Amino acid sequence: xxxxxxxxxxxxxxxxxxxxxxxxxxxxxxxxxxxxxxxxxxxxxxxxxxxxxxxxxxxxxxxxxxxxxxxxxxxxxxxxxxxxxxxxxxxxxxxxxxxxxxxxxxxxxxxxxxxxxxxxxxxxxxxxxxxxxxxxxxxxxxxxxxxxxxxxxxxxxxxxxxxxxxxxxxxxxxxxxxxxxxxxxxxxxxxxxxxxxxxxxxxxxxxxxxxxxxxxxxxxxxxxxxxxxxxxxxxxxxxxxxxxxxxxxxxxxxxxxxxxxxxxxxxxxxxxxxxxxxxxxxxxxxxxxxxxxxxxxxxxxxxxxxxxxxxxxxxxxxxxxxxxxxxxxxxxxxxxxxxxxxxxxxxxxxxxxxx
Length: 355
Known about the structure:
With 355 residues, the chain is of the alpha/beta class. The chain folds into 2 domains: 3-134 and 208-347, Glycoside hydrolase/deacetylase (TIM Barrel), CATH 3.20.20.370; 137-205, no CATH class. It is built from 14 helices and 12 strands. It starts with a helix and ends with a helix.
């Protein structure tokens, strides 16, 4: 998301907050609950160039969110409780907290907050990561561009791309352009591009995994607390919709089996990597059902409603985004009003396109 788009969204959310429109809409749009999505937790301020800053929030903000949802009347649930709660909703909304990828700071920084407040949460693990084999290409791309003082040149699908990288604004533009070119490629091709780029600039593509992610000993330490649920996130964090069905099933089933073997307990929950419409769809949702998971979550934005009781392997989430660490924005999003407006606009656009 560009900085301009971020500013516009902040302005729109602030307008809803100060107008009180979110409060008026909430009884009609709030729904039954919410699954929050997080990735990394750090007290360090973002750098001038840090496009992946959206994946980081502070421990102070997490605590503010937890306190806010409790004071707002939400029950904080484990994922195991979600199917029954959707089937038999109560007058009180519920909230779940989830982390994708298994960053080490989930244990070292986030966990102490949740433990002190007695709040459950889930961590989704791509099982190659604790083995030190994860390819965090989006973070490596950021590091390469951050280290480049002049230009970043890369060949993607036979086409050369060259971007100025003197200033943070130029680096942002270079990252945005290269990142979205890569997201449109088959995943192995995109990773190969970044690996070559990293090598050219003196980085080792796989080094970030051992630096940033929990190993199995750390995951077991976290899993000892009954507040914590460890769940699956494929083996190697691939966009499943780009794979053939056999590979999808292998990525999903083997990650579930590996977590069960490492922890000695059932793995009942799953998260689709990237999780957007282009990365996971009806085929993946059906395979998750066949594999018997209780829930599977996407990154599609939204709250939960009773109708989701029939869509338990395609649940939306609400991102706690590093660019939106403000309880005013959270309050508006929990009202459901922004999602209702967005759905109305997209339905209207679809109707116009079909007319």
